């Protein structure tokens, strides 16, 4: 299975963004659990989860500084890639 994500470098800091379904962002516990499952793919990086609502408006869950940067950057400017490597535990939320 594959997923869409990106690695972003900003002012010497590196973090990851992973696209997920909107319902994953509905509860903070779900966000933290889902982000933790991507840690093997993005070791030693904060992970921000991103989804879009029905109108295409991006929603984020993660570190507030990273979220603020992504909000300014805009979802269309994120250098998305498709990753074919998946975490050992398959995500039931995707």
Protein model, in words:
- The protein has about 90 residues and is an alpha+beta fold.
- The protein has one domain (about 5-85): 3-Layer(aba) Sandwich (Trna Endonuclease, Chain: A, domain 1).
- Helix content is about 20%, strand content about 30%.
- It contains two helices and five strands; from the N terminus they run E-E-H-E-E-H-E.
- It has helices at about 30-40, 65-75, and strands spanning about 5-10, 15-20, 45-50, 60, 80-85.
- The longest helix is centred in the middle third of the chain and has 11 residues, at about 30-40.
- Mean pLDDT is about 85; it is low at about 90-94.
Characterize this entry briefly:
By secondary structure, the chain is α+β, with helices and mostly antiparallel strands.
Topology (elements, then pairings):
Layout: E1 3-10, E2 13-19, H1 28-38, E3 47-52, E4 58-61, H2 64-73, E5 81-83
Parallel strand pairs: 2-3
Antiparallel strand pairs: 1-2, 1-5, 3-4
Given as residue ranges, the uncertain stretches (5+ residues, pLDDT < 50) are 90-94
Query: CATH topology, anyone?
Result: Trna Endonuclease, Chain: A, domain 1
Main sheet: strands, sense, barrel:
5 strands, mixed
The total strand number stands at: 5
What order do the SSEs take from the amino end to the carboxyl end, as H and E? Answer: EEHEEHE
CATH class: Alpha Beta
Which CATH architecture?
3-Layer(aba) Sandwich
Question: Biggest sheet, strands in spatial order?
Answer: 4-3-2-1-5
Q: Percentage of helical residues?
A: 10-25%
Number of domains: 1
- DSSP summary: helix tally: 2
Category by helix and strand content: alpha+beta
What is the CA-atom radius of gyration, in angstroms?
12 Å
Distance between the termini: 10 Å
DSSP strand (E) fraction?
Answer: 25-35%
Q: What oligomeric state is this?
A: single chain
Shape: globular
Mean pLDDT: 87
């Amino acid at each position: 299975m594959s997923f869409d994500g990106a690695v972003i470098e900003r002012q010497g800091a590196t973090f990851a963004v992973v696209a997920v379904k909107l319902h994953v962002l509905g509860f903070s516990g779900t966000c933290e659990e889902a982000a933790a499952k991507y840690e093997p793919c993005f070791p030693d990086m904060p992970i921000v989860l991103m989804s879009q609502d029905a109108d295409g408006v991006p929603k984020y869950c993660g570190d507030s500084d990273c979220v603020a940067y992504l909000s300014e950057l805009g979802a269309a400017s994120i250098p998305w890639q498709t990753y074919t490597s998946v975490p050992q535990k398959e995500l039931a939320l995707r």
